Amino acid sequence: MINKLISKIKETNAPIVVGLDPMMKFIPSQIKEAAFKEFGETLEGAAEAIWQYNKGLVDAIYDLVPAVKPQIAMYEQFGIPGMIAFKKTVDYCKEKDLVVIGDIKRGDIGSTSEAYAVGHLGKVQVGSKSYYGFDEDFATVNPYLGSDGVNPFIKVCKEEKKGLFILVKTSNPSSGEFQDRLIDGRPLYEIVGEKVAQWGADCMGDEYSYIGAVVGATYPEMGKVLRKVMPKSYILVPGYGAQGGKGADLVHFFNEDGLGAIVNSSRGIIAAYQQEKYAQLGEAAYADAARAAVLDMREDIAQALSSRA
User: Fold this and answer.
1) What's the pTM?
2) Any catalytic annotation for residue 87?
3) Closest Cα to residue 13, out of 297, 307, 308?
4) Which domain holds residue 25?
């Protein structure tokens, strides 16, 4: 799957993943009103609004970007109906030939980790038959429990030719409370990065490993170090846009070949119509605003990379 992701990045010239992180405050009123008219102000109504909102977004951007990243918590909060909307979103994105990164941030051990891996990336056995559960292409994984938590995911990835993005240095302000702690004189995130490189060495695609890392755009200098530590690992970079990251912050996450990183923007794209820059398009044209935001982001990154060269 890493080969497909890289191929689509080259095809679109957009190392961008759109975070499909729907919140009710982002969903335009006309979509909510239609959903509530049919299902009432219920969990089912909320899930229908999310699904229709996502569908409009995907229709507007699928030809511009290689991948999307639905954050499962935004769906889980609406219970079973929300999870149905998550699955419908995953399936629809795959119909549009988008690579789907399931942002699930799982981290457990043994049979529990195996069940998470099977549920999101692999097949579950039911009697004599087997079925895909959510069937994302990649999943995000928390490595805090060590190899016991990651290896079950790697096993499924090898079987299904899918991939992982392992949390190494996250974009949130308090990430340093643990991740920056010095261990034998070196920050913990660097040691985790080395481990990701080790896991990835056994899981190579044509150019890059399908075991990647998550490193926040809000820490560009750390990204520079980690790029060297993990030369063959793709880096998923959150924190662009709404969290303060800009194209100029991103150059060190990429290798000299212009590859090696994919940058996430969530509300900066899916709620672009609420920004002053795109407000003139209006609420009803939220999908057009999202498309415009993707084009602007693509240009910002391209300019930053060209200036490095």
Assistant:
1) 0.95
2) no
3) 297
4) 2-303
